[in-house]
Amino acid sequence: MTGSVVGLIGFVLTSLTENIYIIYVTYGLIAGTSQSLIYTGVLVSVGYYFDKGRSIATGMVVNGCGVAMLALPPIMQQCVSSFGIHGTFRLIGAAFFQCAVFGALMRPNNVEMNRKMENKTKNTKELYDNQCVRLGKSVRNSLSTLGSVEFFLFCLSTFCWNVSFNISYLYFPKYFKTNGVSKLDVSYLISATGIGNICGRYLIGLAASDRKIDSRLLFFGQFSLIGIFTLFLPFLKSFTIQFVYMTAFGLYTGGVWILQTVILVELISLSNLASGFGIVMFCGGFGQLAVPLLAEILENDNHDNVPDIDLPKAFAVSGSLYILSAILCALTARKSSSKYSSVTNLSHGDEKKKTNDIELNDDLEMELFIEKR
Asked: In whole angstroms, what is the distance from residue 52 CA to residue 155 CA?
């Protein structure tokens, strides 16, 4: 809800100025912060609410992004033509503000409700002592888990694919226009990613829910394939082939948001999901910040001595980073994982543990026991 209000402010302020340096703040900082707040809040909430079938639930939620990617490019093109860029920014701000309505409809889950009841039944001194002990143990366990090599590799992987993804999206329109595609057809090509996103997010959600399919293997396969396809994009001149590529691009990149939540739970446990997801998104934000600097390096002087982007080189860098991201994620498999670990079993209220369950350390067991009560 906070993100929706911040988004409204950011886009309205952007619509009121033409100074690029002010837009850096209003659009880049304020509106960008709002997107982070909304997206992180939604995915973390889904991760807490759904212990069984978490990947399917996440897939259904993020499918809204795929629908938007399919429908909005032509609509935005028409909005700019009808209302101008300033009016379009105000419309986007109004759409962001609608997220406050949906945020207000998110009810607290059972863990949050139990904590509130616990607070009412305990006196202030006991509650203060318990919270101090739990906070100290939680911070210690979090720092130990989030400081692992596997988590660092996954953060680095997130940085790489955010760089490559934003390079691709930044230069798709220019590449298609240089191949003689009209502005309206370019919007249809961008919409093709929405078709792939809708299918990919749903299919990846189903696949990731199968305990026999490794989430890291899915991640590796997705980004390896799209990396290879992107390397050959400059050689694709036919509109039909370009449309197929954009559909495949949406298909293979859309599922990453589902796999991120699943892989993080496997790497750092459900209790550290919120803090871990925040750090991962922070690394992704740095990846987006690196794109303008990288674009400066990719510039070439054309025949009129005007700086221009070397598109083949840009897509070569983008494709290579996709593949590097896939490899870095695959390296996190050194940490044994289980989608149905004892953390999940405890959240379902399983009092009896099977002998082959993964053993939890004493601190985490005590924390989960307090949460259950």
From this structure: 25
**Are the CB atoms for 65 and 256 separated by under 8 Å?**
no
Cα(70)–Cα(197) distance, integer angstroms:
8
Spatial contact of 339 and 214, defined as CB atoms under 8 Å apart: no
Q: State the DSSP H helix or E strand holding residue 166, giving kind and residue range, or none if neither.
A: helix 149-178
Each residue's pLDDT tens digit, 124-142: 555 555 556 665 665 566 6
How many Cβ atoms sit within 10 Å of the Cβ of residue 237? 9
| Total-model pTM | 0.64
Contact present, 231 and 28 (Cβ < 8 Å) = no
Using CA atoms, how far apart are residues 51 and 58, in angstroms rounded to an integer?
11
- DSSP-assigned letter for residue 21: H
Going by the DSSP 8-state scheme, the letter that residue 360 receives in this structure is: P
Q: Would you list the domain boundaries of the chain?
A: 1-119, 151-336
CATH of region 151-336: 1.20.1250.20
SS3 1: coil
